[in-house]
């Protein structure tokens, strides 16, 4: 996930410090170490499909707790993240994916 | 005419004739509203990711049909009334590229496998 590659740094749009102050109030904004921008796997591979009927492929995009992994972690593009989100929610309705971590099977 | 796919989950321990009657009712609703049923697949009994009405497993059915708005309203009304049906979900797939629905083996979900040798028929028109 976090392999450092200082080549081809991802250029943030202008406005860097000042948007989303990370630390506490007043403190200087902590620069996170730069991580390589992941490329969206669905853009890269055209034959990967997003389908709510395939929980095995969707399982990659939910955390241990059953939460949907955000784009900044998974590296999806916006379009495919929307599709993933839709598919996960549909799969949850059909009990193909868990909604929360510990569903008590009493 | 719109294209729909509905997945509904039945209680796991049903007799053959009960399952048959539910299937027959579904077909009957579709035909009475001039719809067209393409397939009704039994995915078998699978483990549910979370219990629904105290059931830990359920029998999944996949239904693929064409029809209008009245048909889907009536079909869902019937599914709601039937207490053998734990859950149903219909998706309108009119605008989406048709892809082959592979027959699901009725197995309990294995852990996620990295997609290495999945024989997925790639019939994806690049609709970017």
TrEMBL record, chain A:
Biased amino acid composition, Gly residues: 15-27
Pfam families: Ribosomal_S18
Gene Ontology BP term (one): translation
Matches recorded under PROSITE patterns: RIBOSOMAL_S18 (PS00057)
Presence of the UniProt keyword Glycoprotein in the record: no
UniProt-recorded Gene Ontology molecular function terms: small ribosomal subunit rRNA binding; structural constituent of ribosome
Region feature (Disordered): 1-36
Keyword hit for RNA-binding: yes
Primary role: Binds as a heterodimer with protein bS6 to the central domain of the 16S rRNA, where it helps stabilize the platform of the 30S subunit.
Xref: PANTHER family: 30S RIBOSOMAL PROTEIN S18, SMALL RIBOSOMAL SUBUNIT PROTEIN BS18M
Oligomer status and interactors: Part of the 30S ribosomal subunit. Forms a tight heterodimer with protein bS6.
Protein name listed in UniProt: Small ribosomal subunit protein bS18
Organism: Oryzomonas rubra
TrEMBL record, chain B:
Xref: Gene3D superfamilies: 3.30.70.60
Top-level taxon in the UniProt lineage: Bacteria
InterPro entries the record matches: Ribosomal_bS6, Ribosomal_bS6_sf, Ribosomal_S6_plastid/chlpt, Transl_elong_EF1B/ribsomal_bS6
Key words of the record: Ribonucleoprotein, Ribosomal protein, RNA-binding, rRNA-binding
Pfam families: Ribosomal_S6
Transmembrane segments: none
Record GO biological process: translation
GO CC aspect terms: cytosolic small ribosomal subunit
Molecular function, one GO term: small ribosomal subunit rRNA binding
Function: Binds together with bS18 to 16S ribosomal RNA.
Protein family membership: Belongs to the bacterial ribosomal protein bS6 family.
Protein name, as recorded: Small ribosomal subunit protein bS6
Species the sequence originates in: Oryzomonas rubra
Name of encoding gene: rpsF
């Amino acid at each position: 996930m976090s392999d450092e590659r200082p080549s081809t740094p991802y250029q943030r749009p202008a406005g860097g410090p000042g948007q989303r102050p990370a630390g506490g109030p007043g403190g200087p904004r902590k620069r996170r170490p730069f991580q390589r921008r992941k490329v969206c796997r669905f853009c890269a591979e055209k034959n990967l499909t997003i389908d709510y009927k395939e929980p095995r492929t969707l399982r990659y995009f939910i955390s241990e707790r059953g939460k949907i992994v955000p784009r900044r972690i998974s590296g999806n593009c916006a379009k495919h993240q929307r599709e993933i989100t839709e598919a996960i929610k549909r799969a949850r309705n059909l009990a193909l994916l868990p909604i929360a971590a510990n569903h008590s099977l009493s | 005419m719109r294209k729909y796919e509905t997945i509904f989950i039945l209680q796991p321990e049903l007799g053959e004739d009960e399952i048959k009657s539910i299937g027959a009712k579904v077909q009957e609703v579709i035909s009475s509203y001039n719809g067209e049923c393409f397939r009704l697949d039994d995915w078998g009994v699978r483990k549910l990711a979370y219990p629904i009405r105290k059931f830990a497993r359920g029998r999944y059915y996949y239904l693929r049909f064409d029809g209008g708005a009245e048909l889907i309203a009536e079909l869902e009304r019937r599914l709601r009334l039937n207490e053998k049906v734990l859950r149903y979900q219909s998706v309108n797939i009119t605008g989406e590229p048709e892809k082959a629905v592979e027959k699901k083996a009725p197995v309990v979900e294995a852990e996620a496998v990295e997609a290495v040798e999945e024989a997925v028929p790639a019939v994806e028109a690049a609709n970017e």
